[in-house]
Amino acid sequence: MQASENQNTHYQRIGGEAAVRRLVQRFYQLMDELPESHGIRKLHPADLKTSEGKLFMFLSGWMGGPQLFIEKFGHPRLRQRHLPFAIGAAERDQWMLCMTQALHEVVEDAVLRAELQAALGKVADFMRNQAE
Ligand code: HEM
């Protein structure tokens, strides 16, 4: 690690690249398997590998690690990229159900886990584009 790299980022605290990969892998596995998240699973492609790669690249930068998504695709414009999909409170909650479960399985540090859950909850809420 270079001296200039910040060791207090979520990226460092979670355990770097390997841990972010595990989180994303488990997240999509859960989305694929849980009956409760079938609604949002249907919005995704049959093969989740591309989704997994993109979320990994995004979260890497979002957690303070390498900005892989931006390097490859430019500014995330995440809300705009989600506009083709109808996302309301139910979809947000399904996404967070999978993410919360994945966080519980992958992140041992309870403080870090709570921080990530709260921060991702805000991003997921921001993704809503349907009037309830
Ligand atoms: C709130 C509920 C959400 C739903 C229903 C949802 C659904 C989707 C769908 C259907 C796609 C397109 C397929 C794909 O490329 O995987 C997508 C792409 C993506 N989502 Fe979400 N998403 C949600 C929230 C989030 C959140 C909270 C994040 C980040 C923390 C996120 C990050 C991404 C990224 C990085 C992509 C790839 C964008 C691209 O195509 O360039 N999503 N999402």
List keywords for this structure.
8 helices; globular; 132 residues; mainly alpha; Globin-like; binds protoporphyrin IX containing FE
Task: Characterise this structure.
It is a single chain. With 132 residues, the chain is mostly helical. It has one domain: Globin-like, CATH 1.10.490.10. It is 66% helix and 0% strand. The protein contains eight helices and no strands. Helix 2 crosses helix 4 (49-62) and helix 7 packs antiparallel against helix 8 (110-126). The mean pLDDT is 95. The structure holds protoporphyrin IX containing FE.
Please summarize the sheet with the most strands: none
| The CATH superfamily title | Globins
Detail the poorly predicted runs: none
Measured distance between first and last alpha carbons: 47 Å
Instruction: List cofactors, ions and other ligands.
Output: protoporphyrin IX containing FE
The first-level CATH class name: Mainly Alpha
Range of helix content: 55-70%
Radius of gyration: 15 Å
Q: What is the arithmetic mean of pLDDT?
A: 95
Secondary structure tally, helices:
8
The total of beta strands comes to 0
**Outline, from the CA principal axes?**
globular
